[in-house]
Write a sequence for this structure.
């Protein structure tokens, strides 16, 4: 276990593993998302209150979970990179930023498309919506800070610091519907009493959630190879990697 | 079938929602592949320059 953990700090090892895993993750993501879409759009019954509009949750909820999960992974990778000076940590964090930002944008856009027919407005300065918007700003801030320095190593450190500090927003996003009066509905899947949905609605949602996670893993594998190459350009192993 | 496409009168919200999600997914694949390709080209250029300097 520890040997494997140490290996993860090695750029050529991570580059090789990422290249091997990417196609499998893409395949698994396509299968789970495919099932989720077919069952979510075609088989699940309409909601008794929201009718067919509820089907938007099949992209909105997985995107929202992914937006905070990716930020948490990015913050952990940044902390590892800052504390133990592991370059791969910066590579994982840098590779995660555009993915996380795009899924946060997806959360906001799909949420506002759901909000219009349900709440009568595309946007409200609601605690959940506002904290999710702050999450998007954090992603953009981390991305901009990394590219604001001429020395890439300094950019990496500054971005990592902001990513670690910004992680305070993750529990705020999650608990915003509990702590404050929010238009946004509370948790439907993870509750003390168990999921509040019947299986015919829940399984497609869980499949979409798994599919989005696998998709993140696949895209991360592609992006992290590039980020590792950018940081290891002078290393001998890169010669072989670039040739192949 | 037309009932499926009309989404109970919510088609103007449901389909743009799924279309935007598809767009984000497609952008992620395209952008990740492009960034890896660019990184490979930069690394190859750096190696070519290094080998030219040593000659």
């Amino acid at each position: 276990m520890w040997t494997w953990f140490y290996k993860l700090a090695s750029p050529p090892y991570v580059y090789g593993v990422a290249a091997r895993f990417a196609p499998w993750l893409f395949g698994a993501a396509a299968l789970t998302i495919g099932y989720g879409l077919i069952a979510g759009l075609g088989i699940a019954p309409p909601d008794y209150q929201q009718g067919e509009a509820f089907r938007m949750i099949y992209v909105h909820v997985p995107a929202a979970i992914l937006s905070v999960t990716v930020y948490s992974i990015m913050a952990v990778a940044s902390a590892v990179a800052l504390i133990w000076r592991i370059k791969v940590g910066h590579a994982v964090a840098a590779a995660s930023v555009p993915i996380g930002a795009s899924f946060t944008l997806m959360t906001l856009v799909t949420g506002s498309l759901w909000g219009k027919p349900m709440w009568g407005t595309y946007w409200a300065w609601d605690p959940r919506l506002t904290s999710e918007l702050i999450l998007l700003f954090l992603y953009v801030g981390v991305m901009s800070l990394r590219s604001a320095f001429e020395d890439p190593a300094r950019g990496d450190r500054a971005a990592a610091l902001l990513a670690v500090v910004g992680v305070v927003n993750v529990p705020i996003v999650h608990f915003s519907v509990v702590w404050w009066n929010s238009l946004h509905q509370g948790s439907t899947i993870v509750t003390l009493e168990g999921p509040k949905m019947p299986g015919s609605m829940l399984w497609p949602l869980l499949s979409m959630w798994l599919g989005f996670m696998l998709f993140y893993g696949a895209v991360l594998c592609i992006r992290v190879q590039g980020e590792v190459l950018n940081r290891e350009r002078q290393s001998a192993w890169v010669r072989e990697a670039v040739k192949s | 079938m037309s009932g499926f496409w009309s989404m109970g009168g919510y088609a103007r919200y449901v389909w743009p929602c799924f279309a935007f999600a598809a767009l984000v997914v497609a952008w992620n694949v395209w952008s990740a592949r492009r960034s890896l390709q660019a990184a490979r080209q930069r690394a190859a250029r750096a190696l070519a320059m290094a080998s030219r300097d040593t000659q």
